[in-house]
Amino acid sequence: MTTEAASPAAASAESADRRGRTWAVIYGGLTIGLVAIFCAVTAGIAWRRLIYFPYAGLWLVRLLPLALLLAAAATFAMALRELGLAAQTQGWAERLSRDWRRHCGLIAGAAVLLSIGIVWVLRAFPNSGDEYAYLWLARTFLAGRLWNPLPPIPDLFVVAQTGFFGAHWVTVYNPGWPALLAAGMAAGLPAWLISPLTGGALLVLAALLGHRRDGPLGGVVAAALIGASPFFLFNAAAYFEHVPAAAAGLLFCWRAGRFLERPQLGTALLCGAALGILGLIRAVDAAIFALPFAAEFLWRARLRHYRLAPAIGLAGLPFLAALMGYYWLTIGTPVPTFPDVAQSVKFGAATIGGRSGLALILPRLLFALSRLVAVAEWSSPLVVPAAATAFVVLARRRRLGFVDLVFPMFVVAYLFVPYDGGNQYGPRYYFDGFPCLVLTLVSGLVPLLQDKLRPQRAAFGWFSLVAHGAICAIVLAFLCSGMRRVVDQRMDLYDQVRAQHLHNAVVVVRSGTSDIYKMYPPDLVRDGIDAQGDVLYVLDLPQQMPELRRLYPHRRFYVYVRAADRASGALRPARLSQTRSGG
Predict the structure, then answer these.
(1) What single-letter DSSP state applies at residue 44?
(2) CB 77 within 8 A of CB 96
(3) Which one of 282, 495, 575, 582 has the largest count of C-beta atoms within 10 Å of its C-beta?
(4) Angle at 433 between CA 430 and CA 439, to 5 degrees
(5) Do residues 82 and 27 lie in contact, with contact meaning Cβ atoms separated by under 8 Å?
(6) Does residue 514 come out as left (phi exceeding 0), alpha (psi in the -120 to 50 range) or beta?
(7) Which residues of the chain have pLDDT under 70?
């Protein structure tokens, strides 16, 4: 009887297993098909604009790859479910939580190694004038100066993002990140390694903050979600200031949250110091992070909070004094101004470009939406909608904290800044708040992952995490391929100089590089902090060439020219008539 009774049950279980494997094959095939279509679409139609012009129009073209990846993530998760893996996920939360510090360390280490690999993809090249300016200022600090003397013929040697203020050759950028670069270089680290190491520190801080908000599992998931994102990996491989700014912001959030829970003098001082460091790196970020904290402070503060709150400001004052003193010494004013931005950006009741009302608001909202789409393009299409859902869930449960308001503050703060950020890896103005966006997602996700009463829902959460990682790997491969091509084209001038073994030469930069993502001559005239290199690059200003010839009579002169429809240019010896007339 037992054997006869067991036989139908066994047959039923075997039939269910067969059905599960069949559906797993179907879902797996759909996943492969969707990814193949994504590859074809992005490589053949849209990816050039996705990578190089991430805020352009063509919404349908931009949304189609994201929709394909989102569908692939869903079918991938369903394939995992049909394979009978749901039961195996039930112990994952406990295993990850048991030794969360080690897991977070492994994640941070792997992310640092990946970002170093991307440094190789990018050839350690400062792809933006901003990146070059930070390195330029760092080398200025290493030379024991706050500014550099004017080059011999200033108009020929001025590079993008630098300028002349009287007898000072400076860049009007905050000195915090260049100072950190200089400190690392003084310690013997190569400049390209400092940002990846800073990215590792960012992940550690994200894990600590995730642990404080959502326990050990929250720390692991936060580090994994951020560390797997190409948005993080590419910026950690670059020389932009956004990774150290985000790290300083997370340090502030970590200590500020602790201060709200248990106000102590040491915590208040560290909180203020973190905010001061953030201000030295990127001044506007200090206000963006401080405002949500101030709102929660006013909501939750008791008498002891108010007694210790001045310590936060006092700890930040030395950094503010250092910032204002730096600008006072270099450009003669404690508060720098940006005339080109001031002419195009108006706040309050004013308009942008003469427009007002809906004509002003709608383009700004669309621009912000475009940046959010770019966040999805540079991470995965799961992040933004999942974070928005988590935000709503936390609001309904009254669990929102000031950390959850940081990323929305970035969206609002840059709503009326009509500039997309130029050369960048993803929407970089949002990167500083991106870890806080992920922390909001984590706060909504962790309860789902730990749901023992509804294991199928928990398994769906785990499978979504795996799908996020798979999508990030696919996007990373495309971005690495595309950005390597961009960098190779942008470095054409320097590659040709090396290939021809030029020495004791002057190169007149008549054309920019790259037919994909153009780099113009003012970005290519990179002669260091003293304009005394073995090969000098100068702008093509014919009226200044006779004087330049007299200044360097023993150097050979060359001209770099590239046709508009060609990927590479030609570097050839310059005739005397060419350097005199520009012909």
Answers:
(1) I
(2) no
(3) 282
(4) 135
(5) yes
(6) left
(7) 1-20, 43-61, 84-88, 337-360, 576-583
User: Do 483 and 51 form a contact (C-beta atoms < 8 A)?
Assistant: yes
Listed in sequence order, the DSSP H helices in 491-544 are: 492-499, 521-524
Strand partners, 553: none
Which distant-in-sequence residues (6+ apart) come within 8 Å of 246 by Cβ? 202, 431, 432, 433, 434, 435
Question: Nearest Cα to 383, choosing from 432, 438, 459, 463?
Answer: 438
Express each pLDDT in 255-305 by its tens digit. 999 999 999 999 999 999 999 999 999 999 999 999 999 999 999 999 999
Question: At what angle are helices 455-490 and 191-227 packed, to 10 degrees?
Answer: 150
Q: What is the pTM of this model?
A: 0.90
- Answer yes or no: are the C-beta atoms of 41 and 65 closer than 8 Å: yes
The helices-and-strands tally (H runs, E runs) of the chain is 25, 6
243-265 burial code (b ≥16 CB/10 A, e <16): bbbbbbbbbbbbbbbbbbeebee
Is residue 405 within 8 A of residue 257, CB to CB? The reply is no
- At 355 the three-state DSSP class reads strand
Nearest to 205 by CA among 376, 432, 377, 399: 432
Task: Please name the residue that has the structure tokens 């190089």.
Answer: 52
Q: Would you call 265 helix, strand, or coil by DSSP? A: helix
CA–CA distance, 121 with 432 (Å, rounded to integer): 23
- Of 50, 298, 321, the C-alpha closest to 175 is 321
d(CA 454, CA 496): 62
What is d(CA 311, CA 273) in angstroms, rounded to the nearest whole number? Answer: 10
Q: Which of 133, 160, 128 is nearest to 147 (CA)?
A: 133
Judge whether 197 and 174 are in contact, CB under 8 Å. no
Q: What integer pLDDT is reported at residue 555 of this predicted model? A: 93
Both tokens of residue 431? 């990167």
Distances from the Cα of 244 to the Cα of 81, 98, 176, 286, 474, angstroms? 39, 30, 9, 13, 26
**Angle of helix 100-121 versus helix 230-237 axis, rounded to 10:** 60
Report the Cα 134 to chain-centroid distance in Å: 16
